[in-house]
Specification:
- By secondary structure, the protein is an alpha/beta fold.
- The chain folds into three domains: 58 residues, Orthogonal Bundle (434 Repressor (Amino-terminal Domain)); 126 residues, Rossmann fold (3-Layer(aba) Sandwich), CATH 3.40.50.2300; 129 residues, Rossmann fold (3-Layer(aba) Sandwich), CATH 3.40.50.
- Helix content is 43%, strand content 15%.
- The protein has a six-stranded parallel β-sheet with strand order 2-1-3-4-5-11, sandwiched between helices. Strands 7-6-8-9-10-12 form a six-stranded mixed β-sheet, with helices on both faces.
- Helix 1 packs across helix 2, helix 1 crosses helix 3 and helix 5 packs across helix 12.
- The chain is elongated, with a radius of gyration of 26 Å.
- The protein starts with 7 loop residues before the first helix and ends in an 11-residue tail after the last strand.
- The mean pLDDT is 89.
Length: 339
């Protein structure tokens, strides 16, 4: 009998049982005696029958697929988290569908709906900066098990990410320890909880060192290289420019480096630079960059584990997991130049 054309009826005839019994063995939808289960499994092996994955998911009401919806999947930070999620899902017997939200509310909602149509058992989402929270509200109404990563919203879902406020306060302390009193901050995308929390951390760090907050030293960035260059240039063009700059994410850090070099300035001789998000080639810049490292592997693993628990029926209150960052000190910070 050709293995590719075997049917459930072929299995039933060979095992001497009904097709419904074969279905129950395959899908685990009803208890079948060990003797009949053994006959069915032997018949499946002998005929080469391949159960239809979609049919199995319909019978069991699970698909063993989960969706991941994030923005900028080429960003090393999100790439590391995605890899950790996929590895943990594979360990748990799950496959993943990956979708890029583009940080656009309408597209984010569309890809999440597409993931639901593909019968994923749950979704891991890094929500975009949508003031309406349309996608999150849709997921709440739909009852799809969901875990949020990186960015936090007021919702009924679990979320996991890094602790932002104290982390940036520590960056300010690092620069203040060299004697910097005029410290600039290039934030992230407006509307992201991470941006808000990191600017709060910046202000907290200034306060700890008795430094008066100056709003002209805070520049926005939409997380693109070009925007970061423009924001850094705006800081450098101030009548009294900062002696040190904190970049709010990895893309901003790279843009800041470019803008400082384009201005003919040296890091750290003329201006110090520190930032959020370590990346593997930061150690090969000249100078080597001082950055906060996020525990991407742990974030990804934890998100996958929390989602599996929700898929399994956990009814506990929503959980918020905040993981610690690590300050990786290199050579991009020094005492301010004497003017």
């Amino acid at each position: 009998m050709a293995r590719a054309t075997a049917t459930i009826s072929d299995v039933a005839r060979r095992a001497g049982v009904s097709t419904s019994t074969v279905s129950h063995v395959i899908n685990g939808t009803r208890l079948v005696s060990p003797e009949k289960t053994a006959l069915v499994n032997e018949a499946i092996a002998a005929t080469g029958y391949q159960p239809n994955a979609l049919a199995r998911s319909l019978a069991r009401k699970v698909s063993n697929y989960v969706g991941i919806a994030v923005s900028a999947i080429t960003n090393p930070y999100f790439s590391d988290i995605i890899c950790a999620i996929e590895n943990e899902c594979a360990r748990l017997g799950l496959l993943v569908f990956l979708a890029d939200t583009r940080d656009e509310p309408g597209h984010e909602l569309a890809v999440v709906q597409a993931l639901q149509e593909r019968r994923v058992d749950g979704i891991i989402l890094a929500p975009c900066g949508d003031p309406e929270n349309a996608t999150v509200r849709y997921l709440e109404r739909s009852g799809i098990p969901t875990v949020l990563v990186d960015r936090f919203t007021a919702s009924a879902f679990d979320h996991v990410g890094v602790e932002n406020k104290q982390s940036v306060a520590n960056l300010v302390s690092h620069l203040a320890g060299f004697g910097h009193r005029r410290i600039g901050m290039i934030g992230g995308h407006a509307g992201f909880s991470t941006t808000t929390e990191r600017i709060e951390g910046y202000r907290l760090g200034l306060k700890r060192h008795g430094i008066v907050f100056d709003p002209e030293l805070v520049q926005p960035s939409n997380q693109t290289f070009e925007a970061a260059q423009n924001s850094t240039t705006a800081l450098l063009n101030l009548t009294k420019r900062p002696t040190g700059i904190i970049a709010g994410n990895n893309q901003t850090t790279i843009g800041a480096v470019a803008a400082i070099r384009n201005a003919g300035l040296r890091i750290p001789q003329d201006i110090s630079l520190a930032g959020f998000d370590d990346f593997e080639w930061a150690n090969y810049f000249e100078p080597r960059l001082t950055l906060l490292a996020q525990p991407c592997d742990e974030i990804g693993r934890k998100a996958a584990q929390m989602l599996v628990e929700r898929i399994g029926g956990l009814h506990a209150a929503p959980r918020s997991v905040r993981l610690k960052s690590t300050l990786v000190t290199r050579t991009s910070c020094a005492a301010p130049a004497i003017s």
